[in-house]
Amino acid sequence: MAAVNSSKLSRSKSQLNVMSRWNIMPYKLHLIFTFLLLFVSLCFSDDDHEMEEFLKREFSLSKPYQGVGSLGSSHWELMGDAMVTTDQVRLTPDMQSRQGAVWSRIPCHLKDWEMQVHFKVHGQGKKNLNGDGLAIWYTKERMQKGPVFGNMDNFTGLGVFVDTYPNEEKYIERIFPFVIAMVGNGTISYDHERDGRPTELCGCNAMVRNQKHDTFLFIRYIRRRLTVMIDIDGQHEWRDCLDIPGVRLPLGYYFGASAITGDLSDNHDIISLKLYQLTVLRSKKEEEEEEQDVVTIPSVDNMELLRLSQNEEGMSGLAIFFTVLFSMLGCIFLIVIGMVVYSHWNESRRKRFY
Q: What whole-number distance in Å separates Cα of residue 204 and Cα of residue 229?
């Protein structure tokens, strides 16, 4: 009898040990999972955690626009039909065949920077009966009239364009207004008839015209990476527009903003341009590499791959539908497989206990 009781006791102890191990395992798994999440977040953390920003007033334009356009009394210079009011710098009025610009007089020698643009596009014209758009520049040349949103063609540097009128009507999947970025080396022409498609880096649609709330454009250049975001919905939230690595821009170029109208027109207003210097932590190796690899001509790494992806951009509505459909089916399939595997695992564990 004692032997039977001892065997029962030992069996119950072993069962308790097994069950206690199973009870402890979820806590261990939870700790491991938390550690992995923390590790991944540290590895892929954004550069915002490693940098500070400082407003550079000499490269910024804001109310009350004191002395803007006056000789020697301002860091900014007006060109063409641009004019200063109490509320904005109006690059063009809502009139045909006008162009205007505002340009910084001081070249910028910051490695890493961020430009926040508060702007407004509005007018009397109905949808698709307005034009043509505005541009934000960081270029070698300044104060040059031309057909590219009021600036010269074959420019050298960076242009970010808010294009409000579609010239190439066959690309119906692109909704205007549309924001794109382009890097020029002095020999690349902007294709106006194709809305800059052959030379654009990337872009996004942005319904900025005749909005009652404020509209903003955000341009960041850090560690040779160009990021553009927009805040146009009145929610005070930035939305991704484009993010391109390997963008090489020389130091010492000028910031500016320009706009143009043709047969169609709009008011193109700049409320403020605020430039921030970003102080980014760099390793000694990164600093040495940047010192050796001095950029003298603007360029973009892997530009051919970017153009290839743009050529594949024009998916039909049917192709987009099937892409979304198969993606959803794939997600459902993975969820079902996960549930089946979990039920089998749970059943096997229950059999072990009982």
A: 9
The burial class, CB within 10 Å (0-12 / 13-18 / 19+), for 82 is: buried
Length of the chain: 354
Query: What DSSP assignment string belongs to 110-167?
Result: -SSEEEEEEEEEE-S--TTSS--EEEEEEES--S---TBTTB-SS-EEEEEEEE-S-S
The pLDDT of residue 8? 44
117 within 8 A of 132, measured Cβ to Cβ: no
Go through 226-263 and write b for each residue having 16 or more CB atoms within 10 A of its CB, e for each that does not.
Answer: bbbbbbbeeeeeeeebbebeebebbeebbbbbbbbbee
List of residues 6+ apart from 203 with CB closer than 8 A: 178, 179, 180, 181, 241, 242
The 10s digit of each residue's pLDDT in 128-144 is 788 899 999 999 999 99
pLDDT score of 337 = 81
Closest CA to 115 of 142, 140, 139, 136: 136
> Mean pLDDT for the chain?
82
Find all residues with CB under 8 Å of 275, minimum gap 6, and list them: 55, 56, 59, 60, 108, 110, 113, 114, 115, 255
Q: Whose CA is closest to 136, among 110, 103, 165, 108?
A: 103
Label residue 83 by pLDDT band (50, 70, 90): very high
| pLDDT, tens digit, 9 for 90 and up, residues 24-39 | 445 444 444 444 444 4
- Both tokens assigned to 99: 């162009």
The sign of the CA dihedral 302, 222, 142, 134 is positive
User: CA 223 to CA 296: how far, in whole Å?
Assistant: 16
The DSSP code for 189 is: P
Please, which residues have CB within 8 angstroms of residue 80's CB and are 6 or more apart in sequence? 98, 99, 100, 101, 145, 150
Is the CB of residue 198 less than 8 Å from the CB of residue 311? no
Angle at 64 between CA 63 and CA 66, to 5 degrees: 120
Percent of the chain scoring above 70 in pLDDT: 75
